[in-house]
Amino acid sequence: MFTEARKLHLIEDVLKLQSEETLMEIERILKSASSERSKRPSAREFVGIISKEDIELMERAIEEGCEQVNPDDWK
Description:
The chain is an all-alpha fold and 75 residues long. The protein contains three helices and no strands.
């Protein structure tokens, strides 16, 4: 509830604004925040985060644990 109360206080403050410049700045911030939320992440953002050694460990774990098919499991 604390967040909702903060939002209501913010709305009250915005309603009291007299400055067109301040209102425009608030609009810019809100538009920027909404466009950041809707932006789809790109794989390029993750390049270089995982080391080559860690990738090799993950690939081995997948090959050993996930790529093994036991025909009896399908019966």
